[in-house]
Amino acid sequence: MQEPQIFCKLWRMSKWFYITTAIDYVNGQPHLGHAYEKIITDVIARSQRSLGNEVFYLTGTDEHGQKVQQAATAEGKSPQQYCDELAVIWKNFTKKLNLSNDDFIRTTEERHKKIVSAFLQKLYDEGHFYKATYRGYYSTKEETFLTEKDRRPDGTFDPAYGNVVELEEENYYFKLSIHQKWLTEYIELHTDFIYPDYRRNEVLGFLRNNALEDLCITRPVNRLNWGIPLPFDKNYVTYVWFDALSNYITCPANYGDPVVTWAAGVECLLDSPLELWPADVHIIGKDIIKFHSVYWPIMLKAMGLPLPRQILVHGWWQKDYQKMSKSTGNVVDPIAVIDEWGCDAFRYYVVRELDIGPDGNWTDSGFTSRYNAELANGLGNLVNRTLSMLKRYRNGVVPDRSSDLEKDVSEFVNKIKDQLKGYKLQDGLISIWEIITRANQYIDHTTPFKIAKDPAQAQRLDQILYSLVETCRILGVLLYPFLPDTACAIFKQLNLEQKPDKFKLSNWGGMDTGHKVGEPSPLFPRRETK
Ligand code: MSP
């Protein structure tokens, strides 16, 4: 975790681009779905930085609740010790994926609990909660009361709910029903609030056809004590989802965000606070859309906070057209793939294969064939051929500026920037590969390896070599949000000292005549298909 003070030095009098992922259940295993969500968030965060914005990327772990309490007890550990051990795995996972997250929040941290408490007290004082008794069927596995609608036609509950018990309990409820009208109108009016459209329609359909029931926001401590205690009633802890969703604002509060600290009624002790809230985009999977598009906006409205600008909902991965499941061994282990193929190969495949929205499917053969065709033969070959020819024919020295590929490349650069502004990551990669394909075709058509044998064509060879080496440099800049290590490796082979992390470096002509490039080395060595 990095200290708030470090960020304060970078503070500007303006709002940062604030982007978040869902926070993962600490007791699960990091898998392909978690990796995908964090990588697409990282690509957006990096591309926003490349566009010149101040960006804050938040991810973390969701650590309270019954399952954690039970698992810790089963291992003979305190829940805190159990979570501390698992949180290390999740933090290492962010490094493995080469994420550029600015903080990692854990819901068991004091800084989180303190702000959740402040908001609970505020909502209680302002009359948003009431206490009532409820009798019903409770699924311990899902940590939720089930309703009649959850019964199957034969009257039983789906085994997915695990052990279902009848319970009578007094709890605190959050008055959700009074918020239904404005929320429906808000989503109708703000057509970009939930993306993609079909997810927005799903939420609107739910809001139009169902009366919102008030939300139970507590669990009695005698049943569950691994949670944030209610500040106004020590016999209860807070419902995990109330706790978890709040991470999106507790982090900004800790950086002194004026909007959040004011609403929470907490003092901001920092000289240079960060303006983060509202979030520009929450990235989540399709299974948790109701929590983010219904409960979360209502919580925020009641807290007196503006709503996030957008909720971007991605689909789910399957492997070989089947649900991934540890018990059948049908899983993709992102760490194993990265160890075998490298982080950028993994990042490339997941972003290229699956657009943000629909469900996707992982196949090992699809991965290998994209690796060989697009990374090794496409990108790797272009950079390698270009540098090798420049070395062989011009001793590695960049010739006079020329503009053979300028028009094509510049058009794509503008297109790619727009695609990234619109979070069209898959389209962005497709456009980058159009440049690569064109540049490879340009080599085939202009045949520099033949021209090099004819001294009369020296000037033509210079033109071709400049166009190619300049295209490689620009590709480094465009690739940086997606494949940061590869982009840096391209710059290193070009012997450029800057980092390729600003799109303003993508203007044609940035490569200086007379500059001497470095040694070529394969970016993605070709692999045999198993
Ligand atoms: N802890 C809650 C989120 C709280 S956010 C305030 C949770 N955690 S989770 O670990 O189960 O899931 C984290 C994210 O991973 C979710 O956005 C979820 O949709 C995503 N995925 C889990 N499995 C997935 C796939 N198979 N494919 C793609 N994403 C998936 O829910």
Summary, kept brief:
This protein is α/β, with parallel strands linked by helices. The protein has helices at residues 4-9, 32-50, 66-74, 79-96, 110-125, 180-189, 197-209, 240-245, 247-254, 258-264, 289-303, 334-341, 343-353, 364-394, 406-421, 425-446, 448-451, 458-479, 484-493; strands at 17-21, 24-25, 55-62, 103-106, 129-139, 144-146, 164-174, 194-195, 215-216, 218-220, 229-230, 233-238, 281-285, 311-314, 317-319, 360-362.
Architecture overview:
The protein has 530 residues and is α/β, with parallel strands linked by helices. It has 2 domains: 17-314, 3-Layer(aba) Sandwich (Rossmann fold); 360-506, Orthogonal Bundle (Isoleucyl-tRNA Synthetase, Domain 1). It has 19 helices and 16 strands. The strands form 4 sheets. Strands 1, 2, 3, 4, 8, 13 and 14 form a 7-stranded parallel sheet that branches. Strand 5 (129-139) and strand 6 form a beta hairpin. The chain starts with a helix and ends in a 37-residue tail after the last helix. The structure holds 5'-O-[(L-methionyl)-sulphamoyl]adenosine.
